[in-house]
Design goal:
By secondary structure, the protein is mainly α. Helices cover 78% and strands 0% of the residues. The chain folds into 2 domains: 62 residues; 131 residues, no CATH class.
């Protein structure tokens, strides 16, 4: 469990530089330069991700069950993760109405994804992993909206075509993940055997 916790601290800490203030981030960026900052950020993020994967895998070998999730939570989680994939796709499709309305769909997608997995899983490692990501997403979204207000950011209106593309890409990515990739990558098949 220690590796999982260290990984979460490193990965989410790296991704929280804009959550807790621009000052320290800007100072580090100025000191290291553009390439140095991006390099350090990438190395720390990758190291955190590796620790999360190894730590979570080790925790699954000796599970500490906190609760048994009712079967209906799996169905709710499937629906919520579908929404999170659409939000993720909306992050990258320019001109869509989802991003125009919500402003930060990736962070919202992480929030919905983490909540879905918290509902459907009851191991201590699940609570740490998905609870950590949920807490990060809540704080990150709040900070991003605050930066938008302070900067007077205005998001352009979205159009129907790009919105449809974002939804279709999100649904297809969700289907590939739910019916194939999740089982291959994580050993858990959300649907079927």
């Amino acid at each position: 469990m220690t590796l999982l916790i260290l990984g979460l601290i490193l990965f989410l800490g790296t991704h929280s530089t804009r959550v807790f203030g621009e000052g320290p981030r800007a100072a580090l960026h100025a000191r290291l330069g553009e390439l140095g900052y991006k390099g350090a950020y990438s190395v720390a993020s990758l190291a955190g991700l590796v620790l999360i994967v190894v730590g979570y895998g080790a925790a699954r070998e000796n599970p500490q069950i906190v609760w048994i999730a009712p079967i209906w939570t799996r169905h709710l989680a499937a629906l919520l993760t579908l929404a999170s994939f659409v939000l993720l796709a909306a992050t990258y499709v320019p001109g869509n109405a989802i991003k125009a309305r919500l402003h930060h769909p990736m962070v919202l997608g992480v929030k919905v994804w983490a909540l879905a997995h918290l509902l459907a899983n009851g191991m201590l490692a699940d609570i740490l992993l998905f609870g950590g990501f949920l807490l990060w997403a809540v704080l990150s979204f709040r900070a991003a909206r605050g930066r938008d207000r302070a900067a007077g950011t205005v998001y352009p209106a979205g159009r129907a075509g790009p919105t449809l593309v974002a939804v279709v890409v999100g649904v297809v990515a969700w289907a590939v993940t739910a019916f194939w990739a999740h089982g291959v990558l994580f050993g858990v098949k959300p649907f079927g055997g």
